[in-house]
Amino acid sequence: MRTVDELWWPLAKIRFDREQMIFLILNMNLLAEGIYPPNPNGTGYTDPAILTKGKAKRPYCETALMLHAELSWRLGQTGISGELLVERVNRIYLELVNQGQGISATDILREVSGEARRALNYISGWARRKQSYTAWKAKTNYRKGIRGNATRR
Predict the structure, then answer these.
(1) What 3 state SS string does 20-44 have?
(2) I need a labelling partner for 119 at 20 to 30 A (CA). Which of 48, 52, 64, 68 fits?
(3) Is residue 70 exposed (0-12), middle (13-18) or buried (19+ Cβ within 10 Å)?
(4) What is the Cα–Cα distance from 51 to 34, expressed in whole angstroms?
(5) CA–CA separation, 30 vs 34, rounded Å?
């Protein structure tokens, strides 16, 4: 279990899993400014691309802005549920910080439920979903037997 202070990934390891989505949501403001969150443990990590000689493929801030754009697009696809997810993740984080207890991604994930959890599930994953959020919700409801008289066979 990783604490929030340890919830940091090098750019090359971002795969948009649930823990990383929580990390990106918590750092949306920095990403919007073109700043990738620094390692909170101060290990002296330097992005290997910075150390290589030659011309950079893109400015360092561009990758942070691209992550912000992807996160914003995915959240935008979920509408109000995405806004609810961002609000809940930030509120849960602040509550846990104010309580002074150790915080882990699991603690935050455990507290995110309902529509916010569905939005998190929808936006997570390496590739964008091909279905709209509404169609995806209907499909997952059918699988769970929630919709109408759907039964499992």
Answers:
(1) HHHHHHHCHHHHHCCCCCCCCCCCC
(2) 64
(3) middle
(4) 20
(5) 7
Distance separating alpha carbons of residues 35 and 124, to the nearest angstrom: 22
C-alpha dist (Å) from residue 33 to 61, 64, 67, 113, 125: 8, 8, 11, 29, 24
DSSP state of 13: G
pLDDT tens-place string over residues 19-58: 999 999 999 999 999 999 887 776 555 565 555 555 556 6
Per-residue pLDDT band at 123 (split at 50, 70, 90): very high
C-beta separation of 9 from 20 below 8 A: yes
Output the CA–CA distances (angstroms, integers) from residue 44 to 69, 86, 90, 114, in the order listed.
Answer: 27, 30, 27, 39
